[in-house]
Amino acid sequence: FFSSRRRHTRFKCDWSSDVCSSDLDKTTFEVEQPMFEAMLGGSIDVGDTGDTPFILAAARAPELRLISLTNIFAGYSIIARPDDGYKTYDEAFAANGGDREAALAEVAGQLEGKTIILPGGASFTPVLDTALGYAGLTRDAVTILDLDPVEGAAAFLQGEADFYSDGLPQRFRLEQEGMINILTGPQLAGGAMDLAGLGTTQAFLDAHPDVPARMLTAWYKAIDFLRSNEDEALGIMVDWINEQSGAGFTKEDAKRFLTDLVIVPTLAESGPMFWDDPESPFNWQSRLQFVVDYFAAAEGLDAAAIDLSTLVPAAAYFAELGAP
């Protein structure tokens, strides 16, 4: 079974052939932790994950492996209600004469003494910490309500907190309700973006050593199709998303998703972005080491237990594809 991130749909596949069907056994996980529990329990073979949830899960379950990095998620944001008078980054940027650091400090400073709803998924604490850091604040400066994403969005709409922070699809839902993003992932950068790819277990790799390269080949064929047949590809995406979630997603939403919220490189673009250039802001080793160091300092993660060279065989699988 394969599980995709956020709207997690399981695809039943015969790994000995090229036959997969999306018509069987669908389920949903709002965050990665229960997905990894299902994977470790044997009901899912391969699942899409962000780098932060993977590292935290692998610290407890060293048999997990990250076998690819395929995209960069920048869809996190901190949201306020439009009538509460909070300044957005764009407003502060203009008011501070185009000074990015001053704008971030001013907007993030509005969180001090306030309440923020933060889903329990591990990806979201670095977003908050990154924002607070620009204002010289720590989590002690805010009250955090740890709620399920759907429950949290509903609570925010009912006025139960000053701010809400999440990724998708709740961000889209709140925007449709007229809520405003005061800070977004690209504005915050750093810990407010993460790399995403496929995770599995060593046992699965031992039994199916050819599957990672085959799945990646299919992935990059899909990205090539998206680049060369955008309108048709967006239509397929929209139909699938709406079938799974009833979200009322449009082609315009899908276009924005792929333009502003997720960076999805082709095979040729992925090499220098993730693997080949140590100076790239998205270099796999630098980014994952940042995650390890961040949670070692913030949450007491045992950094010594994290061996990235073992946990992340993704570079070797990418090399099998013979990228230009």
For this entry, give a set of tags.
alpha+beta, 13 strands, single chain, eight-stranded mixed β-sheet
List the helices and strands and how they pair.
Blueprint: E1 2-3, E2 10-13, E3 20-21, H1 32-40, E4 46-50, H2 51-60, E5 64-66, E6 71-73, E7 77-80, H3 89-95, H4 100-109, E8 115-118, H5 124-134, E9 143-146, H6 149-157, E10 163-166, H7 170-176, E11 180-184, H8 185-188, E12 194-201, H9 202-207, H10 211-228, H11 230-245, H12 251-261, E13 262-263, H13 267-276, H14 284-299, H15 308-311, H16 314-319
Parallel strand pairs: 1-4, 8-9, 8-10
Antiparallel strand pairs: 1-2, 2-3, 4-12, 5-12, 6-12, 6-13, 7-10, 7-11
Helix pairs in contact: 2-14, 3-4, 4-5, 10-11
Q: Could you please describe the fold and organization of this structure?
A:
Strands 1, 2, 3, 4, 5, 6, 12 and 13 form an eight-stranded mixed β-sheet that branches. Strands 9-8-10-7-11 form a five-stranded mixed β-sheet, sandwiched between helices. α5 (124-134) links the parallel β8 (115-118) and β9. Helices cover 48% and strands 15% of the residues. By secondary structure, it is of the alpha+beta class. The two termini are 31 Å apart. It has helices at 32-40, 51-60, 89-95, 100-109, 124-134, 149-157, 170-176, 185-188, 202-207, 211-228, 230-245, 251-261, 267-276, 284-299, 308-311, 314-319; strands spanning 2-3, 10-13, 20-21, 46-50, 64-66, 71-73, 77-80, 115-118, 143-146, 163-166, 180-184, 194-201, 262-263. The model is unreliable at 1-12 (pLDDT under 50).
